[in-house]
Design goal:
The chain is mainly β and 595 residues long. It is 2% helix and 45% strand. The chain is built from two helices and 47 strands. The strands form twelve sheets. Strands 1-2-3-4 form a four-stranded antiparallel beta sheet, with no helix packed on it. A four-stranded antiparallel beta sheet has the order 5-6-7-8, with no helix packed on it. Strands 9-10-11-12 form a four-stranded antiparallel beta sheet, with no helix packed on it. The protein is elongated.
Length: 595
């Protein structure tokens, strides 16, 4: 992993013509671009100055000596850098509309910027790798009869230096000079997001699951010469052993957001964050990479109409160190194989999951949803079991925990209430034990005692409460009565064993996840600042020292240990990434592992 962006969100990337260096642009008030080596992960250059609000587009010149980047400020500033010397050659406004991309002509030093209802052709007569002067001059492209449109992608045809652009109206435009010379509508209502051009041909894709591929030597302006690829049909063949789709469709078919030819195959990235590979010696469709994605929740009552799109649910298998589960606002539950760095299976659910927990015997997986329901699934296949431990609740499920013997399941809700259910109760079983008046804020963590007789709960107000479940659910008021209790797990951000995990002046709300190791000598926390923190356990002294790992962009929503403590798993809230970390045996150093 390249980690030098210091937790900032990565908005764009560009590959150097030499194909070993990458430029990546980040978000933030002081936007920066890093040029780094993909083989060694060494930073070659950091370019910052004159641009703000994030870098939205990057492109190298054909010889790789210069780098252009456009920011997201209201001025839509475009900068040109001699990146090896870290010298800013020019800085100019990109126009009134947002700049969505940049591309250089393969035959001269001209550049094209495109975006919101515009295409601009830029020339700079005195361009050289030594950083010579000369300012940009721009000419706005004329759409002609096609009409002004938002341009979402662009690429030059190397053999003719003709420019092709794809638009939000589903049109492919060919430009001669600064004017559209030909226009063809490829999609009647869906935008074109991606164009890939190489010696192997031309590929165009977008919404609607329709991908068009022209063989080398043919003109992409003639749809009759294209080979259509029905991605919706291909998706039906990507199933697991239980017949469920392995890919996540954002509609009736995958939406293509990026394309690239690579060694006789075509790579595509979908809106669902999946990397597909088409073709090869034995023509086939393969899923190379999968992950959670930002999708609107299916029902209006969830998260204020689907405004939030985050990843919070995380649980590690209690007996198999390589398996763990994540679930998020894309309404999917996913089982991951940490050793293979791959998704094992996926299940779509009706309501966005907020939390998950394995039974200690490994036979059940509980998933709590935003609609107040708790599902029980078979962990390996994610098959729903004919067991419904609880009726739908008015508030979303925010915390889950099984007793050490797997017999009982505690469920915490957003309204602060906590219920205890029989984990194997059939539908229509007796009413659960309700711990009335548990909390005034949402329950955020639940932990059982080793013998399963006591339950510890913590709410968003950082109030810790204890319950005598075996004695009928009475609340224990005197903390001294539980001072010597051995807790099977510890996930609460407050309590004497974790006094030292909170930052100075923290009220605890900036710590989103807490997980004690199974060996009970370490405790990990996930915080609001994109950090994973590793403390000794117990950590009973305020301001205790810790090891820090950083790889997420934005807040880290959750953390948990593998059953053998060889790995830590973490989830990013807004970035929806899933990471696994290796913990050093001697120095407790945190190193991210590929996932």
């Amino acid at each position: 992993h390249y980690l030098e962006h210091a937790g900032a969100e990565i908005l764009c990337m560009a590959l150097h013509p030499g194909r070993t260096l990458v430029a990546s642009g980040d978000a933030g008030a002081r936007a920066s671009v890093h040029v780094w080596d993909t083989r060694t992960l060494a930073t070659e250059a950091v370019l910052a100055g004159g641009q703000r609000d994030g870098i939205g587009a990057i492109a190298f010149t054909p010889d790789g000596s210069l780098l252009a980047c456009a920011d997201l400020s209201p001025q839509h500033t475009i900068a040109l850098w001699n990146w090896r010397a870290a010298t800013l050659l020019s800085l100019t406004r990109g126009g009134a509309g947002a700049v969505l991309g940049l591309v250089f002509s393969p035959k001269d030093s001209s550049m094209v910027s495109f975006g919101q209802r515009h295409v601009r052709f830029w020339s700079r007569p005195l361009v050289g790798s030594g950083g010579g002067g000369g300012g940009w001059s721009a000419r706005k492209g004329a759409f002609g009869a096609a009409g002004a449109q938002t341009v979402l992608c662009a690429a030059f045809v190397p053999s003719t230096a003709a420019l092709l652009t794809g638009t939000s109206r589903g049109m492919l435009l060919e430009w001669t000079g600064h004017t559209v010379s030909r226009a063809v509508r490829l999609h009647s209502q869906w935008p074109i997001f991606a164009i890939a051009i190489s010696a192997e041909g031309v590929a165009v894709g977008g919404r609607g699951g329709r991908l068009l591929v022209w063989p080398a030597g043919s003109t992409p302006m003639d749809p009759q010469l294209a080979k259509p690829v029905d991605l919706a049909q291909l998706a039906t063949g990507l199933t697991d052993e239980y017949g469920r789709l392995r890919c996540l469709l954002t509609g009736d078919a995958p939406c293509v957001r990026a394309l690239a030819f690579a060694r006789g195959t075509l790579l595509l990235v979908t809106r669902a964050g999946e990397l597909w590979q088409l073709g090869g010696a034995a023509p086939q469709c393969r899923l190379l990479l999968q992950g959670h994605c930002a999708l609107r929740a299916p029902s209006a009552h969830e998260h204020g109409g689907g405004a939030r799109s985050e990843l919070w649910a995380l649980a590690a298998h209690p007996q198999r160190a390589e398996l763990f589960v994540t679930a998020g606002d894309d309404c999917t539950v996913r089982v991951w194989d940490a050793a293979a760095c791959a998704m094992q299976c996926m299940r779509r659910v009706r309501a966005a999951p907020q939390c998950a927990a394995f039974s200690p015997d490994g036979t059940l997986l509980a998933v709590g949803g935003a609609d107040g329901t708790t599902l029980l699934l078979e962990p390996d296949s994610l098959t729903e079991l004919p067991i419904r431990p609880s009726a739908p609740h008015a508030g979303e499920v925010t915390a889950l925990a099984f007793t050490p013997d797997s017999a009982l399941l505690a469920v915490g809700y957003a309204d602060g209430s906590v219920e205890v259910h029989s984990a194997f109760a059939e539908r229509g079983a007796r009413e659960p034990l309700r711990l009335l008046g548990a909390h005034v804020g949402a329950a955020r963590s639940l932990d059982w005692s080793e013998d399963g007789s006591l339950l510890q709960s913590c709410c968003e107000g950082m109030v810790l409460a204890w319950w005598d479940v075996e004695g009928g659910g009475e609340r224990i008021i005197d903390a001294e009565q539980v001072s010597d209790v051995e807790w099977a797990t510890w996930t609460a951000p407050v309590g004497w064993p974790v006094v030292g995990i909170l930052p100075q002046l923290s009220d605890g709300t900036d710590v989103h996840g807490v997980s004690r190791s199974n060996g009970r000598h370490l405790v990990a926390t996930a915080d609001d600042f994109g950090k994973l923190n590793l403390f000794a356990y117990p950590s009973a002294v305020a301001g205790s020292a810790c090891r820090v790992g950083a790889a997420h962009a934005g807040h880290v929503s959750n953390v948990c240990w593998s059953c053998d403590d060889s790995r830590l798993f973490s989830t990013g809230g807004a970035d929806m990434t899933v990471l696994q970390w290796r913990v050093g045996r001697t120095n407790n150093r945190l190193d991210p592992i590929d996932m």
